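Hallway conversation turned thread

IA: we were arguing at lunch whether anyone had actually written out PAS domain S-box protein end to end. Turns out nobody had. So, for the record, here is the sequence (259 residues) and right after it the structure tokens. Reply here if something looks off.
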Amino acid sequence: MLNAVPERPLGIKEKEEIYQQITEYSDETTIIHSNQKVLYINQPGSEFFKADKDTLIGANIVDVFTDDYKEFIAKRIRTGMEDRTIGELVETTVKRFDGTQADVELYCYPVQYGETVAIQSTIRDITTQKKTERDLMQLKNEISTPIVPIIGGLAVLPLVGSVDGDRSHLLLDIIPQKIQGENLHCLIIDVSGIYNIDNVVAEFLYRIDHIMRLLGIKLIFTGIRPELALKAIEARVDFSQLTTMGTVKQALKRYLATD
């Protein structure tokens, strides 16, 4: 009976090569980095970032993230290196070498790359998914922002739900577009159905009033609760120039009396 030949332990270089061969078959971007320096990136990652591997290897991993995420990512990497903990799945934004940006999911966990203590980051492109979500949100906001004509030159816009930063920006775009061709002289915006009362809402009311003034349309705000007025003061938003009434009914009476 032939004696079995003992297997030779794999060397460091061989282990790295096997690891690279495995990750090359992945469809997702895989990056190995240590102390923020890229040690390895697979071919799908090179194609995703629109750069060859020689350009990416040796680069600072933090630099591929947009400025608003860099501090968060750097802290996340330090924690992973020091505590050897798995980082939870997060959504972030990266910059590619052709100047474009992409929305991604990022998952990180500690690995041993040869003799080097490192982090493996897996990046999944969700740009299309996020665009679809934003388009659906915009459509939802458009549908939930009906401008109701009352009589010639007057309409009512009831705002319902939460008005966060994203929705306030959408409303600032949507409202002027919706009133085009309506021949409005006055628009009543009722805010009694807004859930959140904060600085974002106060700033939105101030800005939409100025936009409508430039378009030659008078705004009357109704349903402003005391806590919103307080938030406006805290945010240093001047509500004194806004025309306000308690209810839509009161605003209609005032408009008809002065018409």
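OS: looked through it. The longest strand covers residues 101-113.
IA: good, adding that to the notes. Residues 67-83 form the longest helix (17 residues).
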